[in-house]
Amino acid sequence: MIHSSVPKKAGWKARMKTSCVHPSSAWQYTVKAGSMLSGCVPVIIQEHVFQPYEDVLPYEQFSIRLNNADLPQIREILEGVTDEQYRWLLQGVVQFAPAFTWEPSVGGRAFNYTIASLRRKYLNFKAEYYPTH
């Protein structure tokens, strides 16, 4: 079950309860999927790491991306996200969490997104188009 409510005045402690920090790890997909299904806004700290389905999902609509250099200011950065922006990100979490779920009986669409991503990669490869970000 995904909860999508955030208190009207979401301070640091309330934000951290609904934000899940994702440093670089080999289990990034599993951690991200679990946190999104719990209703957390992913705070991704992985420079130069292509995220799952990044070529077909609008990560800016459901996550906060930080660089390693931002770590000393993480508290200030998260406190700087307005309540309106945070609620908008939580709506994105609810909308896109099924992309990270494999079980179709609970609305999972990971298979569909995997095929879409592979198709896009194939077409880019065939066209000799290699986007960088």
UniProtKB/TrEMBL annotation:
Residues 35-79 form the Exostosin GT47 domain. This is Exostosin-like glycosyltransferase. InterPro entries: Exostosin (IPR004263), Exostosin_GT47 (IPR040911). It comes from Micractinium conductrix. PANTHER family: EXOSTOSIN FAMILY PROTEIN, EXOSTOSIN HEPARAN SULFATE GLYCOSYLTRANSFERASE -RELATED. Belongs to the glycosyltransferase 47 family. Pfam families: Exostosin_GT47. One of its GO terms (cellular component) is Golgi membrane. It is found in: Golgi apparatus membrane. Keywords: Golgi apparatus. Its main location: Golgi. One of its GO terms (molecular function) is glycosyltransferase activity. It is a single-pass type II membrane protein. It comes from the Eukaryota.
